[in-house]
Amino acid sequence: MSKNLVGNHIRKLRFNHDEMTQQQLADKVGVTRQTIVALEKGNYSPSLELAFRIAHTFNLPLEEIFYYGENTKQ
Amino acid sequence: MSKNLVGNHIRKLRFNHDEMTQQQLADKVGVTRQTIVALEKGNYSPSLELAFRIAHTFNLPLEEIFYYGENTKQ
DNA sequence: ACATAATGTAAATCAAACTATACATTAAGT
DNA sequence: ACTTAATGTATAGTTTGATTTACATTATGT
């Protein structure tokens, strides 16, 4: 329950960037693959710190990856 | 330990916005005053969800309030 | 001098992010 | 047919964000 209000485009971005795998992204940002899986599934929203690291990895502003709103899908 | 790598301008912004008190900001974003205190002190970085709510309250993009880097102060 | 509002600090507890491990499924290569 | 890489799913456990409560300090107003 307690639905997550933060969505993201991580999955899409992985494929736009070199077909990066979940494991590769996990390694780059310093978390486990399970964390990436959970984020892509939308199970929970990341810490701000992790969000910054992911944004940095994709060379994008944080708000182009993560979005906040009632509508889960943007 | 485990120093926090995310800083913010919350305190500055409170005074730029109507001299908003910690309690008022806490109420607006739906947390307790202690959470605001801890954030201003830099004790930890907020959840991404809370970061979005704070940014929304100040009508600013998230990255103008929160920043990531070795240098704690921006 | 007294009251009140805003802030600082601290510690116990709760809730959510994140880890670790494990196993199943699908697709691609040899 | 077999192996390997990538992904899906699940669950118990650890870490850390956030709450709650409580009390101290400083400034302002009366």
TrEMBL record, chains A, B:
Protein name: Transcriptional regulator
PROSITE patterns on file: HTH_CROC1 (PS50943)
HTH cro/C1-type domain ranges (all copies): 10-65
Keyword DNA-binding: yes
Record-level Gene Ontology MF annotations: DNA binding
InterPro entries, per the entry: Cro/C1-type_HTH, Lambda_DNA-bd_dom_sf
CDD domains per record: HTH_XRE
Record keywords, A-Z: DNA-binding
PANTHER family noted in UniProt: DNA-BIDING PHAGE PROTEIN, TRACRIPTIONAL REGULATORY PROTEIN-RELATED-RELATED
